[in-house]
Write a structure and sequence with these properties.
CATH superfamily: Aldolase class I
CATH class: Alpha Beta
Order of helices and strands: EEEEHHEEHEHEHHH
Strand content: 15-25%
Protein name: Oxidoreductase
Distance between the termini: 67 Å
Number of domains: 1
Radius of gyration: 20 Å
Largest sheet: 8 strands, mixed
Structural class: alpha/beta
Organism: Pseudorhodoplanes sinuspersici
CATH architecture: Alpha-Beta Barrel
Number of strands: 8
Pfam family, one: DUF934
InterPro entries: UCP030820 (IPR008318)
Amino acid sequence: MPLIKNAAEIDDPYLRALDDAPVPEQGAVLLPAARFLADAQDLAGRSGQTGVIWRNDRDIGELAPWLDKLSLVALVFPTFRDGRAYTQARLLRERYRFRGELRATGDVLRDQFLFLHRSGFDAFEVKKPGDAQAFIDAIHRYSVFYQPAADGERGTLWRRIKPAPARHNAVNEFTS
């Protein structure tokens, strides 16, 4: 399954560990949520990168205490009609200030790519190899957005507003 990250196709550096498989000390590993939460204290001391696969029916707040120990959160879209992972992505980026990789996995379609990116996702697992280039092209399709979002792009209104000049503080001028 192709992986798109930062608008380029890459090899996935993460090893997907099963629930009962030992977790290697070195290297990047991606764990199911239940496994991660059960072993979170032990996994926090790993020297390799740790990621978690988080279903969209779980409360993202459960993950908040561990975000500084994670390099990747993979949010699952069970069907393309189920958009709860969009909300989880926005919460991770805006409320919890997660700066690691945020990956969309599951039933992700190329029509959703730009919306996923604007919600804070920076990596995408693509089901069909032929769709990889379409995903990459989608991010460059639009350069201006009306509303600001989790991707850091300022809306068109904010581009037009000039910063206010520094205010002169007359009180300090006479008391110094």
